[in-house]
């Protein structure tokens, strides 16, 4: 007589997931989480905004074993110096005047972010910020903090520029996120230059590079 014992579906699913991860070249990482961050900021077509201010603050907490997004931080920020967005900025980022008007000023958002790091990520867990380029944590965050008389927390002073990981895997350093998506055979999702969508695409790049056997380590540290 046939054995009619049923195996619960979640057992089968977790077994498939385990098999899939064993089929890739994934390596163990020195981190518990990767924090994928991508700021959007005030901008105009001609020249630079002075001061340039963060208008969207999204961070994804990516599990360093499964590459799933475990949780996220996402807030719009109300700019202080140029509260009215330029038409160019709204067209580029798809961020609306209503979204920034409904946001909090940067110091409050940054306080919420620090709370999220401490409560949701855990300061004692090992995490590494991942960005596309160095602008977010080398330029934008320190200048915004300086203009608001805020300290840059120590945990924001080290990150991985994913373009460098891509260069190691593919042998060429490329400028934008879109060529990395194309080079890895991925599909772009959402709206380009919308921070939360950019983060999701960067997280997809991270996962694809992990499947190529990439080990992720910091590429820049500031004072
Ligand atoms: P990104 O993460 O590439 O979407 O860009 C981050 C920020 O850089 C944007 O929110 C803009 O402030 C600025 N930026 C990006 N691309 C351009 C561009 N073509 N012209 C002017 N500013 C830009
Ligand atoms: Mg960016
Ligand atoms: Mg972006």
Number of strands: 8
Bound molecules: adenosine monophosphate, magnesium ion
Radius of gyration: 19 Å
The CATH topology assignment is: Nucleotidyltransferase, domain 5
Largest sheet: 8 strands, mixed
Number of helices: 8
Strand content: 15-25%
Distance between the termini: 71 Å
Fraction in helix: 25-40%
Indicate the CATH architecture: 2-Layer Sandwich
Q: What is the molecular shape?
A: globular
- The whole-number mean of residue pLDDT values reads 93
**H and E string:** HEEEEHHEHEHEHHHE
GO molecular function, one term: 3'-5'-RNA exonuclease activity
Protein name: ERI1 exoribonuclease 3-like
Pfam families: RNase_T (PF00929)
InterPro entries: 3-5_Exoribonuclease, ERI-1_3'hExo-like, Ribonucl_H
